[in-house]
Amino acid sequence: MTGRSALATILRCKPIVDAVADDGHGHLARNIGLFQLTMLGVGATIGTGIFVALTTAVPEAGPAVIVSFVIAGITAALTALCYAELASCVPAAGSSYSYAYATLGELAAFLIGACLLLEYGVSASAIAVGWGQYLNELFAVTMGWHIPDAIANPPGHGGIVNLPAVLLVALCLILLLRGAKESTTANAVLVVAKLAVLALFVVIALAHAKAGNFKPFAPLGIAGIGSAASSIFFSYIGIDAVSTAGEEVKDPRRTLPLAIVLSLLIVTAAYILVAIAAVGAQPWTAFAGQEAGLAVILHNLTGAAWPAVLLSLGAIASIFSVTLVVLYGQTRILYAMGRDGLLPAFFSRVDPVSQVPRQNTWVVAIGVALLAALVPLDVLVNLTSMGTLIAFATVSLGVILLRRARPELPRGYRVPLFPVLPIASVLFCLYLIAGLPADTWLLFAIWLGAACLIYFGYSMRRSALSGA
Description:
transmembrane helix, Amino acid permease, AA/rel_permease1, transmembrane
């Protein structure tokens, strides 16, 4: 292969009209409506980011973690508008992977797919780790018993295996195998429950808030605010999760943009309110190492067990729904990459009865369970943020490229103030990426290097666009 032909190969784009073409393995069923899809986005977003990550974010920024959530929210909002436009004109499974394939070329799409697999797989593991913390708090408050450290924590954190995390992934696997409609309906019920629980927390915590807890507001300066914003950004993964359902949504050109924007508005409001209430309720120095933080705060404020029990139940339901949606999203990305020939066709096979990619659902569940059982939470969180931010920046860049390359393409939604907002989205993402620690960059570089080896060794020749 000559240099010119190799360049043409890695830059080839998938025609948009082929985005949902049947490959002989069957289509996913379109049975998800606006409410279910919006709850999918909220369900994938409100979870570990607010129930667990406050214990790592507040020590980085102090009370100014509120500003960190605002910065992350602005970045997510700018990106959400870009997602809404691309989702309305490329309503395919695979989210930013599919968008990159239509705008940036095959190699970029494969690397974005690798970022998404990192984003979804690692975030699901991080979320599952947090689930065990609240399960432990529930047992402690109701029965005075803790899960033994040996089976409640990963190696290096006082344990051998995180068994609750494995149990959570297994429960999600059972539900996902039943079908997308059943999974999204169960998720919607869980989302309504967790929003009610968070509202209870905000009301009680604000009633006990003290102005002195907000001073000093930014003890670690601007650098701390930026670092916290970078680390909590993984919790905005729900924006991307909405777009992974592109081939299972009714009237996708209208429903996808609406669901993305609605879910972001709900999530950002909830995050900022809970952050204000939590920081006002206790000194910022008390957050470090505080497992099941929100439940502990309520217990300390009221002296009663029932608020902590309710919050722990809400967190357990919440983190379950996030894990469910994130696992769902990863299976759809693998499905899209398998259908395009960039991964083995095994990943794109759809069960004729349940209409879900059954085999790759098993693969995802086993991989996530192993990560959650054996890897500490802090390592997982930063890797997820890196993958999420790279994917978000790519989508924003894709809007600019597709507007110029295909201005005639039907769009159910257009980003306002083009190209200012897409450019601003890319810059915000780059700012947050710069705030991630050096070890995250190293691990991410190793991951992308492995992805390049797979692409040039297998995917480039097996691609559906190669005619192989």
